[in-house]
Amino acid sequence: MLFTPYVFYQGVMRNCTSRMRYLILLTFCFPILTHGQGFITIDTLTTIPTELTDKLNGQISSVVTVDFTGDSKLDYLVTMASEDKHNYEYLEYWITSEFELFKKKKKFNDGIQYYHFVNLDRDPEPEIFSAFGYEDGIDYGFFDLDLKLGKEELIFYFNPVIIEGNKYHWGYPWDIANLLTRNSNGTIQIQSSIEHTIVRDGNITFPEDQPFFPVIFFSGHSTQPYELTEIESRTWLTIEQLKMEAHNRR
Q1: C-alpha–C-alpha distance, residues 73 and 56, integer Å
Q2: CA 18 to CA 119: how far, in whole Å?
Q3: 3-state SS, residue 228
Q4: How far is CA 208 from CA 72, 133, 139, 211, in A?
Q5: How far apart are CA 24 and CA 183, in angstroms?
Q6: Engineering a disulfide at 173: which of 5, 114, 182, 245 sits with its beta carbon 3.0 to 4.6 angstroms away?
């Protein structure tokens, strides 16, 4: 199965494809464990549907498809060409498979904006992994998508770490390939750590109601030579368990 993350870095879309392998482990005494789904496939359209050009005013820059409503039908993320003379900002429209407007977002060309869709709980709509910020600091977080209100609600912020060759490296968004998850008897679990001494600095968000940033593990290839040594152990936790640790652990 192939996935293509929806990536914006200083206004330039990057498409990168990585193959996910599924492993089923059957034992007599233990639960059935399989690798989780990971990031959901996002594809770039080469031909733009006329329903989109008729619905939206302005020049369409690009269109990608992804099922962000969880109904097994492909929806559309439409990036409009900037109408700002300085090319500073642009609009992104989220359009459902029925060509209904779900939400509109103003975005900026001078920042770091990466996000992926991934199913991490039992409701049909996916959650969002977001990496947003600037060179002096990036916020990494999971967000819940409210289909009724068309809003993204923060679940928690975290520290992203890439596991590569049994070593730990900081998970810069351009180095991340996939989220490490598994399906344990129908429950999605995330490989993570709540036993670490990583201290965040820089210009990032520190929510008042979240005193702790858990570590979330990813696959990928680090472009930085520095190895992290502050992680004491790894475990598998659900998104709900991690949210509880993030808000209650000190």
Answers
A1: 21
A2: 18
A3: coil
A4: 37, 19, 15, 7
A5: 10
A6: 114
Q: Of 73, 72, 71, 74, give the one whose Cα is nearest residue 45.
A: 74
pLDDT of residue 83: 78
pLDDT of residue 135: 87
CA distances from 38 to 17, 50, 106, 195 (A): 13, 32, 27, 23
At 4, which amino acid appears? T
Q: Is residue 38 within 8 Å of 19, Cβ to Cβ?
A: no
Give pTM, 2 decimals.
Answer: 0.84
In this prediction, residue 201 carries a pLDDT of 86
Please identify every stretch of the chain with a pLDDT value under 70, giving residue numbers as ranges. 1-36, 85-86
What Å distances lie between residue 220 and 107, 163, 164, 171, 176, CA to CA? 26, 7, 7, 8, 5
